[in-house]
Amino acid sequence: MTETRASVDRDTRDAIGDLFVDYAYFLDHEQFDDWLALFVESSTYKAIPRENVAQNLPATLILCENKAMIRDRLVALQQANEYNIHTARHMVSNLRILAATPEGYRVTANYAVFQTDQDGRTRLFSVGTYEDRIVRVDGELKFQDKVAVIDTASVPTLLAVPL
Amino acid sequence: MTETRASVDRDTRDAIGDLFVDYAYFLDHEQFDDWLALFVESSTYKAIPRENVAQNLPATLILCENKAMIRDRLVALQQANEYNIHTARHMVSNLRILAATPEGYRVTANYAVFQTDQDGRTRLFSVGTYEDRIVRVDGELKFQDKVAVIDTASVPTLLAVPL
Amino acid sequence: MTETRASVDRDTRDAIGDLFVDYAYFLDHEQFDDWLALFVESSTYKAIPRENVAQNLPATLILCENKAMIRDRLVALQQANEYNIHTARHMVSNLRILAATPEGYRVTANYAVFQTDQDGRTRLFSVGTYEDRIVRVDGELKFQDKVAVIDTASVPTLLAVPL
Fold first, then answer.
1. Confidence (pTM)
2. Mutate to test the interface with B, among C1, C10, C57, C151 (most CBs of B within 10 A)
């Protein structure tokens, strides 16, 4: 199951990188409308523990099957966060374009998310990798399918913003 | 207050990325003269807790209003570090160019700084984001204003090298 | 001992970045044959504590003087990992090309490796920097010499995959 890397032109490569940077920027700045605008209407969002992926188990922590569900989930997370206030900081790196087809791009990138509480104490919250499908809509790249494969499966209850 | 992303040519984009890499490299290698050379004479350096930025509070942890003050601060930090020896490692990612004007570039990037003590124990020291203004001087990019917006506000006393 | 940065064309720069991403991807996915294919036959792999480098001490934690030794080491690590199962996640950033000569490229990049155990608990495992020599073989970039300079010298016994 070795994944080779796809060759894409440099503008596309940069634009894909920018999409991930925007994704993290909007989450960390709690600009959730801007964040939602990075998804197409028919998009899906999943968070899956890594061991389930390895064992081909279907269980997901979060499963949003369209953009309305992603929006609902976001509202629920924001309400929970009112009682457990903290901020997030996403570090995204190791971008790797696996496939480029007429249907879009399959892309992975690693993330480390750090959370800081109201006393300014930061801790590692979650590390993992994105396994996404990205499409071009009216000239702009957007997420068709967002999958966060989560190494850190022990803290889902504290999930305050999407990974 | 949504910040759009500015479009710059690829050479400039790469050069801005390189400036951040140099900034981290010189700090981690304690090449402080090289690090200082990345700032223009009239440059400012600030470290601000994130919650102060969010609430528009002016309080800063560190405020250097010109390059001489940055140099003084650096000397003070090095002296403090003689009694509390540890090394730093900066991870910088999520570069985002917010604006490109004739006066320069406004740029953000996220950082995670790890500290290691003399027994080889590493801990997360600080995460946050840079909100910088970069200018071109004699063909080279330099920092005009460096602002470290610090998520991790609980450990300023241990600050051994600049963030 | 200030290291300047070498100027290379953008395709080479991207290809060097991709090599590091592949290196981390194959390790994290435990695709070890693919990982080994990133090294030339005569390649070396070293892991050295940072303070030894600073003091010019020769002691290394790991020293593989050719590709067969790297392969042997990998097998030993995999056997040890059977009794101490965890997964790794490499974040690589701050790529810096120090030199470009007919013999190849000298390149540094920072890493942070996170380990997750079977209960889904993640911890910071090691941070440090790579100081590598990369060569072009039949049009492809490969590692000639891989040196992991390790800040975190306190946990070598848990080394499950190469850094």
1. 0.94
2. C151
